[in-house]
Give the backbone structure.
Amino acid sequence: MESSRARRLRSEARSRPSSLRLLRDRRVRRRFRRGTLARWLDDALLVIDRLTDGPIIVLGSSMGGWIGLHLALRMPTRVTALVGIAAAPDFTEWAFPQHLKDRMSAGETLRRQLPDGSAQVTTAGFWQSGQEMQLLGSELAIDCPVRLIHGDCDDVVPVEIAFRLKDRLRSRDVQVTVIKGGGHRLSEPHEIDAILRTVGALMERPQ
């Protein structure tokens, strides 16, 4: 089922002359256990290459924000702005205590319940891929405008991650919007409005 946030973004796209594509994989839940961050990045690069041309604005939510950062690094002449919604770079590093990382390093698939009630399955392959694609340990050579939107009650990706990311970005045009009371999904009407205002302002910037 399409989320209310995706529906609002799609409606916003139709109301503007600019082209905005929402890229979704309806099979993602079935394929998740076979996926890795590197594979999803390759998929995103392929879709962008085949379905778009010219400058693009990348939106990424949660781990999609992590992938979006890699897209901006890999496609600096195409990605003209980046929006991270509860972006989760380096999730495989900071989200797991050492004893769980040791188990995944040994090849174990980890299953656990997240604070928001959803179930999380992390395979050893996915975890290792994430460890190889960490970003927060050094400066990120991203120079386009970046907007980070985060809820201060996010119990999956702490809001501190947004500020760590802000400090690592080389771009001088970085803004962090913290939504009071916002959780990880940021799907309340006023939260979606904040996202749409951010995207709209970026789309109106001269290229």
Remarks:
- Residues 25-30 have pLDDT under 50 and may be disordered.
- The beta strands are 56-61, 79-85, 110-113, 119-122, 146-151, 174-179.
